[in-house]
Amino acid sequence: MADAQIQKVKNELKFVETVFRKLLKILPAFNITDEKILPYGLKPHTRSISWLVEQVVTQQTKFNAKALGIADAAFEFPDTCLHDCEIKVGARSYFVNVKIHNMAGKDNKNDIAAVEKLYMQYSAEPSYDLIYACFGVHFQNVRIRFDADYLMLFSPQFLPIYVNPRNDKVQAFYHHEPEVRSRSEFLEVLRQNSKSIVLKKK
């Protein structure tokens, strides 16, 4: 059972990568706003553009569904949801969280998700598997351009687990060597590393 679930995650990662490799050939460069409005441009921080760029990725996935070989993509989810895109193919769904990497910045550890949210979701829904897809972008002033060669996909289940004690969030480099583990092993690692009161009661 554990081996089958691990293989399922690997297969889903491979499929979503295929979809987004196609998407990268379609994604347009764009201006966030008029240079008359922001004559000095945006500060070169990912947080300045991340939500908007994520919307471009998810909406372009839906808009180009047929060209990408999928049935549909949904992107209207509450902010509390772990995924912000659901790719649909037949009766199957692939749950994706889109991340953004500024190609001009350093490769640092990033907050991935709150431990408690991951733990509760993976405990409550045994069939739920989350995929993180990180797109690289170049931006200058108000212009955004996707990097055609940068695409990192990973599963939280296979992350090298480090929990930031200050905010109880899993942190990781977007580019990392996966640590293949079963779902139950993943939940146990989260439980052992979390400072969350809720998890300690379990």
Concise description?
With 202 residues, this protein is of the alpha+beta class. Helices cover 33% and strands 28% of the residues.
Rg over CA atoms: 18 Å
Q: State the helical fraction.
A: 25-40%
Query: Which regions are unreliable across 5 or more consecutive residues at pLDDT < 50?
Result: none
Read across the widest sheet, the strand sequence of neighbours is 1-7-6-4-3-2
General form = globular
Q: Please identify the structural class as seen in this structure.
A: alpha+beta
H/E series: HEHHEEEEHEEEEHH
The fraction of residues assigned to DSSP E strands is: 25-35%
Q: Biggest β-sheet, characterized?
A: 6 strands, mixed
How would you describe the overall organization of this protein?
- The chain is built from six helices and nine strands.
- The chain is globular.
- The protein is an alpha+beta fold and 202 residues long.
- Strands 1-7-6-4-3-2 form a six-stranded mixed β-sheet. The chain has a three-stranded antiparallel β-sheet with strand order 5-9-8.
- Helix 4 (115-124) packs antiparallel against helix 5.
- It has helices at 2-24, 50-63, 65-68, 115-124, 183-193, 197-200, and strands at residues 30-31, 72-74, 85-89, 92-102, 110-114, 130-140, 143-154, 162-164, 169-172.
- The mean pLDDT is 91.
